[in-house]
Structures are given as C-alpha cells and as structure tokens.
Amino acid sequence: MGSPGLVKAVAKMRDAGVDEVAVQTFAHYYRQLELGETGMIAEDTIESVDMPTLSGVEVSATEAHEAITATAVIKLNGGLGTSMGMDRAKSLLCVRKGMSFLDVIARQILHLRKAYDARLPLLLMNSFRTSADSLAALARYTDLAVPSLPLEFRQNMEPRLLADDLSPLQWPKDPDLEWCPPGHGDIYTALQGTGVLDLLIEQGYRYVFVSNSDNLGAVPEPRIAGWFAASGAPFAIEAVRRTASDRKGGHFARRKADSRIILRETAQTPPEDLAALQDLSRHRYCSTNNIWFDLAAMKQALEIRDGILGLPLIRNRKHADPGDPSTPDVIQIETAMGAAIEVFDDAQLIEVGRDRFVPVKTTNDLLVLRSDVYDVAEGFVLDQVSPQIPYVDLDGEYYRLVADFDQRFPEGAPSLKQASSLTVSGDWTFGRGVRVVGDVKLGAQGAERVEPGTVLDERTDDLDQDDLG
After folding, report:
1. Which element (helix H / strand E) includes 455?
2. How many other C-beta atoms lie within 10 A of the C-beta of residue 370?
3. Which of 14, 82, 167, 329 sits 20 to 30 Å CA-CA off 450?
4. Among 153, 161, 157, which residue's Cα sits nearest to residue 180?
5. Residue 179 in 3-state DSSP?
6. How many Å apart are CA 179 and CA 382, to the nearest integer?
7. Regarding the domain delimited by 4-356, which CATH topology (the fold level of the hierarchy) does it fall under?
8. What is the mean pLDDT of residues 97-123?
9. Which residue has the higher pLDDT, 468 or 124?
10. Helices (H), 177-216
11. Is the Cβ–Cβ distance between 242 and 283 less than 8 Å?
C-alpha cells in the first residue's frame, strides 16, 4: 500500500466506512504528495484562452425546453462558512428578506418546474457537517423532492494530514477536525460511489447543472441548457470576465503541451507567477463554478479511469484548529470540480454575464447581497438594479465574522445602489436608512456610529466624526 502514513490514513478511512473508490482516489493523491507534487502550473506552460459569449448564441424555445426537462440540478452545499465564523452550513445564512440561500434556491427550482413543466430535481452535495441542518431547513418544501431520487448525496471525507510527516491528524479534543472534505472535485467520485450517477441515468436524465449554493445567480437557465445540449459537448463551464475583485482568484488558460483548456487556481500558481495571475489583460476569464456535464460521458470517463479522473492536485495548508494559529500545520488534499474540463475532448467554455456570478465568500459580499443593489425578481431570480456592483472593503477586525457584522448593521444594510465603493476602517455601527453615494471611506480610532438617514458621499472623508453621529 505504501508509507506508514498512507497505511494509517487508508485504514482510518475504511474504518469510517468511506467508499472504496474514494479511498483509492485519496491514495492516488497521497502518493503525489510524497513524491513532492505541488500541483503548481507555471506561467510559461500556458497561454490565454478565448470563448464564445452567451449573448451571441441562438437557442430556440423548443431547444431550451427539451434540454431543461432532461436536466438535474446539483448544489454544492458542503461549506460551513468557517472563514466568517460559522459552524453550520453557510447556505443557512439569511441573505434576503428573511430567506436563506437554501430558501431562495428551493423557490427558484419550484418556479422553473411550473414554468417549463419539467421534473428538474434538486440534489444537494452535503458534507458530513452540513447534511442534517440543510435537510431540516428544506423540510418545509414538501413538494421539492422528486420521487425515486434523493434530496442529497454525501461528499466523501478524508483524513487531514500533519504537514511534517503526512500522518493522519489525531485531535481528541474535537475529532471532527481530524477530517475534511476532498474539495468540490470529489463530486464525480461521490456521484459514482453513492449510485446517484447511475440512478439519474436510469431515471432518464441526460445533463447535470452544478453550482455553488452560495451563488444565487446560478439559476439553471433553460437557454444555457439548450446551448449545451446543441453543442454536443461532454462538459462545459460558464465563465465571466475578471474584474479587480477577481484579481487574486483562479482563471482559465490553455495548456501549451496539448492545447487543453485548464483551470489554474491561485493555490496552483508559483509565487514568481502571481503577477501574471493577476494580469487581467492576459488572463481575462475566471470560473463561475457553474458547470454542465453529460451524464453518459461522465460515466464513461469514470469507468475508463477506474473511478479516478486524475484531476490536478491542490495542496491546501491549514492549521489543525482553523481558529487557533498556534496549532500544528496540516495538509488537506483537494481537487477542483472545474479542473475536470481538461479530462474531456471537446469541452467548452461560454462567457456569461456577471448576473450569473454572485458568490458570497466574505461579509463584504454579504453586505452587497443584502443591500438594494439587487432585487428579487419573478422566479426568485436576483435582479441587479444598480448600474454597477460597488466595491466593499470592511475592516476585518470588526466585520469578518457574521456575528460581529450583524451587530454593526442592526437595522439592515445601507443603500448601495448609488455607491461605487465603500471602505470602512475601524468600528462603525450603521443606523437605519443610511445611503452611500459614490466612493466613500470611513475611518475611526474608536467605536463610532453613522446616524439613521445619513447620506455618505465623497465629502465624508472631510467630515469630523461628530458630523456622522
């Protein structure tokens, strides 16, 4: 089997009842770690990539209807939102008018079923930490589950490894910290291992649309379904033009060696190539993580490779206790779902609008989503009502954690639809009806308050703190 660390890790997984294909997939990447594989993709091995735009695609109403009726929807729902201080599924976070991410998603699906007379099943890929709470939250949608299909399937779990010797972490104080999900690239292994892949095919579905549960812009759009079906492609990803807020994130490129489209994440970029990564004129497109794939093509690819697609390794270094930087360093073996694009011949990219990419990774994003930048339109689809998405940068010391963030916006988010940017340094609490216009910067030495009804604009920088309350 291999080194003592691998033997221990594999035994631990089998004792926990992890699917054997997931065990072998873990072993595959563990051996890469032992050999010093970093998963890095050097800048001189890739080149920029172009793609068609959705706005330039013609899809008939018949094509759209036929494709969406053959589609199943999967939401990646394994995240806990630990970076924002949460200890349960991030999708349970309140985002709009008393509704959580899951509330909005459920209503989007139910609306589309009626509009297109489609079965359109919703399946959550939960982790062992998000399953119970998420299913309980959806229990009130009694007509959401589709007969003969589960509402969830479980993402696999794997041991976290001590960075110094790659042995499985032992953490008796909180045994849950000994485990981690293998990244969202595990979706393909989990679909096969749980039998859901075969079940979907047996039930007559041809396509799957996958997206993150924290991206409410990722509605299963019939027009895109029609484009994907007509393309005949086995796999496709929706892409958007990168903006300043995406500068530090991953991007698409074409590998010079074989002309395959690849997805390079930040964690796969050598330090000397970070400037190139952040060059928006060179690498213009990033992934929405909105993915379409053909079920039969995926089944064939997995069978040919004995269940291991061989996605590029992501070596994720963290602390044993994420909230305590004094605890030992650990390695989490991960893969990215979108990296599967390089597995398939004739895989496609398509550029879509930013309205399909509204991720919430930080409380900065959460403030924008809760504000009047968006309205909830028919079908519970987000409708951007402001001419631009404002750049928001809240002081991490006071706003990073959701509980602290909520304390400082007790009356709800300020109006941001006329804002270009909002930068907050220091400890500010916002009253009801505050309006931000243009570019605004707030700074404070101590705790300060923006009084109800205040209009903040470019002149705010010149005001005394007393002028703001």
Report:
1. strand 455-456
2. 21
3. 82
4. 157
5. strand
6. 35
7. Spore Coat Polysaccharide Biosynthesis Protein SpsA; Chain A (3.90.550)
8. 96
9. 124
10. 187-193, 196-202
11. yes
Per CATH, 4-356 and 363-468 having the same topology is answered: no
Terminal-residue alpha carbon distance, the chain: 67
Task: Return the pLDDT at 467.
Answer: 52
| Extents of the domains making up the chain | 4-356, 363-468
Six-digit token pair at 299?
């089944």
Which is nearest to 354 in space by CA: 224, 228, 215?
215
What pLDDT digit, counting tens, does each position of 415-428 carry? 999 999 999 999 99
Architecture of the 363-468 domain: 3 Solenoid (2.160)
Cα(26)–Cα(19) distance, integer angstroms: 11
Structure letter (DSSP) for residue 177? G
CA angle 31, 342, 186 (to 5 degrees): 55
Beta strands in 83-223 (DSSP E): 94-96, 99-100, 122-126, 152-154, 158-159, 161-162, 179-180, 207-212
Report the C-alpha gap between 77 and 92 in whole angstroms: 10
318 and 44 Cβ atoms separated by less than 8 Å: no
Question: Which SS3 state, helix, strand or coil, does residue 428 take?
Answer: strand
Residue the block writes with tokens 């398939």: 344
The Cα 469–Cα 467 span in angstroms is: 6
Q: In the structure encoding, which two tokens stand for residue 367, read together?
A: 């403030």
| Structure tokens, 246 | 């995406």
C-alpha to C-alpha distance for 273 and 77, rounded to whole angstroms = 32
Cα angle 220, 225, 230; round to 5: 175
CA angle 56, 60, 64 (to 5 degrees): 100
Q: Which of 125, 116, 120, 89 is nearest to 106 (CA)?
A: 120
Spatial distance between the Cα atoms of 305 and 74, rounded to a whole number of angstroms: 23
Pick the closest to residue 253 from 287, 291, 283 (CA basis). 283
Per-residue CA distances from 409 to 364, 399, 429, 449 (Å) = 12, 10, 6, 10
For residue 104, the 8-state DSSP code is H
With CA atoms as reference, report the closest residue to 368 among 91, 85, 75, 96: 96
Bridge-based pairing state of the strands 329-334 and 161-162 = antiparallel
d(CA 401, CA 404): 5
pTM: 0.92
Regarding beta strands 152-154 and 374-376, do their DSSP bridges make them parallel or antiparallel, or are they unpaired? unpaired
pLDDT digits (tens, 9 = 90+) for 335-381: 999 999 999 999 999 999 999 999 999 999 999 999 999 999 999 99
Predicted pLDDT at 469: 52
Strand partners, 60: none
234 has a pLDDT exceeding 90: yes
Q: CA 103 from chain center: how many Å?
A: 17
Report the length, in residues, of the chain. Answer: 469
Instruction: Tell me how far apart the alpha carbons of residues 58 and 231 are, in angstroms, rounded to a whole number.
Output: 12
